[in-house]
Amino acid sequence: MLVCVTGGTGFVGVHSVAELVRRGHRVRILARDPGTAERGLTALAVDPSAVGLVAGDVTVERDVRRAVAGADAVLHAASVYSFDSRHHAAMRATNARGTELVLGAARRAGAARVVHVSSVVALLPAGSGPLHADSPVGRPREAYMASKAAAERIARRHQADGAPVLVSYPPALLGPNDPGPGDQNTRLRNTLRGLMPLWPLGGFPVGDVRDTARLHADLLTTHPIAETPAANRHFAPGRHLPTRTYLRTLREVTGRALPALHLPAAPMLPVGALATAAQRLWPWHIPAEYGAIYTCAHARPVTPTASTAGLAPRPTAETMRDTIRWLHDRGLLTARQAGRALGAHQLDGRPAVDTR
Predict the structure, then answer these.
(1) Which of the residue ranges 195-209, 267-281, 330-344 would you say has the lowest mean pLDDT?
(2) Dihedral-angle region of residue 124 (phi above 0 means left; psi in -120 to 50 means alpha; beta otherwise)
(3) What domains are there in the chain, each with its CATH number?
(4) Which of 63, 74, 325, 328 is buried most, with the most CB atoms less than 10 Å from its CB?
(5) 332-352 pLDDT, tens digit each
């Protein structure tokens, strides 16, 4: 089958493309820079003959129409993901409008199924108890999260109309072969570089990009479409990790002390807001983001959905090792910063970095 993928040059998108091709499907990527797509696919050893590239932007209707024409299914993974205030204008312009254009064009083109890549943060803040497929869309007070909530409302409107739209909710994703590197891999790298001595209490959902890619391939090809909208919403494999557990696991993986002070999240929010305002003027990234603190203050565990029953998340330590080894191979971490993670050449009998 032919699957159109938006955001195929990004972390989630390129791994999802690799998984689809591995299963024998053809893929067409809508990309602003086809060269970037080619580099990402080469890093994952994707057969170039199975992938077509359409130059264009998800905010340009004619580009979207060309990309989805004739596709059997569509994966909408394109969005601007960052808590960096310098990217706020781009995410406001892209995330909701891109979702409206792609989902609408896919429906008109007759795609049998469309998967919208949302985010757990689109459901925050939430009440007490775990998040579930019926959880209402949140109204978060943070730019990226608000843009994902706006896109989620668009996807749910299409679902309410009876369209074959499925929604995935990835957690915060780590893993190798990140074209960015993006927000989460950068946060892990900054921690190992000693740039994050302060952490908010609370927690956040963490998963492996390769597990999310497998979920997307299932939803696009084999998972049945349900009659009720909520049954077509799926949490990607992951774990809710308290920040203390995240750091403890990272210490175990690297063998490093990684000293850190943990403070309640709510009092740290003004610090994050101040850093966000300063970031608009400061040219280098400030690793103290309001959105990350807000997430730790409001995140909840999730109730696994039926689609993830056979997709148990990888051990967090395995994901961290693979990520650290890749960051080191890219020259983004020194051997000292990576610690003993570099000694783990095999994990459960599999290569430490794989493209499954």
Answers:
(1) 267-281
(2) beta
(3) 2-182+205-238 (3.40.50.720), 240-302+314-351 (no CATH)
(4) 74
(5) 999 999 999 998 443 333 343
